[in-house]
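Minutes, methods subgroup
Present: GH (chair), OT, SY

1. OT presented the first of two proteins processed in the latest run. Sequence and structure tokens recorded below as shown on screen.
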Amino acid sequence: MEGGHSSADKTEFTECWRTTWKTPYIMRLALSAGIGGLLFGYDTGVISGALLYIKEDFHDVEKKTWLQETIVSMAVAGAIVGAAVGGWMNDRFGRKKSILVADVVFFVGAIVMAVAPAPSIIIIGRILVGLGVGMASMTAPLYISEASPHRIRGALVSTNGLLITGGQFLSYLINLMFTKVPGTWRWMLGVAGLPAVVQFVLMLSLPESPRWLYRANKTEEARAILERIYPANEIEDELKALHESVENERAEEGSIGENMFQKVVSAWKNDVVRRGLYAGITVQVAQQFVGINTVMYYSPTIVQFAGFASKSTALALSLVTSGLNAVGSIVSMCFVDRYGRRRLMIISMFGIITCLVVLSAVFYQAAAHAPAISSQESLHFGNNSTCQAYLSAPDAARWDCMRCLKFDCAFCANGASEFHPGACLASTPDIRGTCRGEHRVWFSDGCPSRIGLLAVLLLGLYIIMYSPGMGTVPWIVNSEIYPLRYRGVGGGIAAVSNWCSNLIVSETFLTLTKALGSSGTFLLFAGFSIIGLIAIYFLVPETKGLQFEEVEKMLQKGYKPRALRGKEKEVTKG
């Protein structure tokens, strides 16, 4: 998933509850900024349901797979630019103003999508929304971490991660609410502007980050905010710590270069940072190439691939997978400090690979047992309505539903049973209406299947295996793996690799399903996951319970997994 947050153990959550109960202002800061995570999550989930109805309104979108992929993925492309612009704005104008600008851009994008008269305008709206998401996804956690007491910082920053998965869950609920409302997808996409308005209003009454103010030499303003966050007897100590931290940061920034290009070159020449980047980029790329955002962005479509033609049913079943993702984030918070980052990721990858392989087998079986095409059923609707590829095919007698869909036609199910031989018809709005007018089910993305529910259950299990490990841990690793002076540039490089991988996966998923079928596509992601598992095993060290200096010393020597270290010792002894 896109967007990072740090972890917190049970003690920290208990302390967080006590502290925020005494000082509600702290939670107000965290939740107000955390709405940025909600926007991020909502946009990730909402397009998956809206796309089902956009295809019905615009025939070009239904016919052109690349257009569907572009509508989905342009938000990711916008987010890559937004994250880069957001980093500059954070330093130049402050965290608060960056969040306010992100809200305005996101709101404008939501309105543009809601009133779009053509797919091209939807794409423009998606780019604007992506810009807002990119700015918010990196600014919100930063604001929360800098405006939180250090002893509960991890727990409060974790609220941003929870709001991301909560936003995804909310988007599926909203999608389900508007399935029967005129304008369906316009409402789904337009409602996204409301949280942006709420956050904009709330942030107007909140202060700037005390750390940014102190760096901008606004010491008294920074003190005034700290006085609202910390007890009176801790203020001077916090100001002293803030002073030392800012001065060290300035000195370190000077030593690694002034502009981004110099910082990247300096980071890559440093052995410790380069090894940290091997680990950080590995986990971020692996997170995307296990195929998670195919589920997040296309979940209802995948459910339709499994044989559920009803859009409302597909959305309802997708709601379950989104809810499991939110639950998985909470599970991760409970176990990541107990069992370690590396172990959780490796266990997660084994589970993901297993689910993807079994999913591939289920979709293969579903395709192999697709209902046959009946010439009588097809000609029942007239020659002009029948799929032209079917009429001219020399092997038409052997056609089934899957073969019909491969030629961009549609399957009109038998009136007696979806699993009996049905009709292969041209995929047009008029013929779809004729099919439904006879109380038959229209299938354009998947075929009726007796094992479709098993595929949905496996999707849920996939999410359960993904979320506590590969869903949250890559961001935690990237917050711990780099030396302090390189943390910004290292985390930025890894985050960009995450967004770019996200863009590649979301832009190619539907094309892959056309070329390889659902079964082949999930098997391909299983292959990518195996490569990711091997890379994690050899490149990613365990950082649980280590001070930043200890991580740096470990990378200075060069990391090797325990199994290889054992063999090395045996050779040395021999």
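2. SY then presented the second protein from the same run.
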Amino acid sequence: MRLSECLNSSDIETLRKIADAYSFDCSKSSKNALMQEIITHFQNRSFIAEALDGLKEAPYREAVSQLMLDTRQEFSREEVLATVRRTIQPKKEGHDQKWMNRLLAEGWLFRLNAKGGRQCYFIPDDLRRTIRDCLSQSLKQRVSVTEQTPIVYRDENLALVRDTGVFLHYLERHEVRITKDGTILKRQQQEIFSLLEIKEETLGKVSWRFGFGRRFHDYPDRFALLYDYCYARELIAETAEGALVLGSKAAAWQASAERERAADLFRYWRLLYRRPIPQLRRTVNLIASAARDEWVYAASISELIRPYVQDYYYEKAPAVMERRIYNMLVHLGLLAHGQLADGSPVLKVTAIGRELLLQEETLAEEPEAQAAEAVRTPLILQPNFDLLVPIQGAERIAWELEEVTELIRVDTLRVHRITKSSIARCLDNGWTAETILDFLREETADMVPGNVERMIRQWESEFKRVQLHRTVLVTCQDASIAADLKAMPEIAPSLHADICDTQFLIAERGARPLQEILRRMGYQADLQ
């Protein structure tokens, strides 16, 4: 939506507030005059640059910058407020709305009706482009640009997309076996890696690897992303018989355009890595804007994004920047990583990177929750059944942890362990294998090792060899009444077994709904 459309769809009071904010000299009673004055100024790049420079409060300027660097077409009220809270951090209750009103009064945002009549917040496309250019120039003043050409650089282009296709083609032509914990046999891993454009080595013994994908602890970084993407998009499937096969959506993916695959891979990576790096969207936007056209020293980029990248467990922030952001953007083909003659590393956004990172509004966005800060730090479930829990996150799920696990130790993390006895305790308290796994999937960002999942199901089946149930016997005068009762949606979930045409058993929890139904129908409803 362009600025002229936003202004035309706004009421005259909104236009008056914008004109007053900038002391425009025009008729305040004419909507047409107000529109012309605002368009004349807002389409003047010098005016926008001066307006941005005039934002003296650094947190407020940061809020404007983050909104402009965001790629969403429209925002909900909660999403705008989340940005305000994250950047400005209002000290008093209700002040977030005050800052939001300022964004509207100064014309950075427009509150309009979207499809379906709901209210949304828009940033005009032409205004966003102008502000992005201004911000890009401002960012370039904060980084060090080199005039030298790197003696060597890595630009992987769409190699990751092509290697994904190679992997799927290999599965189509070979029988691939996986171990009990769900990993491809080492020999076949080596065969697959040898076919890929970008070579990696199988993992040896490592001290820790978690947080950056479902199979991150099993495979090297690049292939772990490739594998997790294929699994999440149902391009591959792990069978109960220990085979890795093509998934139901592999054919459709292989028929799609290469650019669409690249865009989808990038969106998946950003969503996956957003949990360990909550400010990943902001960080990537900064890198894209600062290194858009020229080679920039990596050290200066690191300094620029340092406030938004934190340590992740045992991995320090510089390592997170280098391995989890720069290297992965290179693997995705969005960033080129070079080295000058003196050995200094430099970065530059590639052509594909400019398309996906800076013009992302042309691509479908993944649905997100209200804001990145709302994302909880996930727990880490290791293949050895240890569950690593941050100290600050334990209280929220203390009851569930006590039910599902045994506490092993507490130091910088709480270390819990899933055991056969802890699962037996869960089952005694009404849990099922599925509800246990649902809890673990939710709290670990769907990163439950395959061997853990299988063992929990196996323990459940062992415990269920003999079961005792409290049930209620229902006796009806004739078979038709019994059939009608059993077919009722309130009763069907509690149905245990048929005794005969006129008698059946239901779980205790179904007794009360059945009594209420019988009373409404005029039948005897007391338990005998």
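Chair's summary of item 2: The radius of gyration is 29 Å.
Next meeting: continue with the remaining queue.
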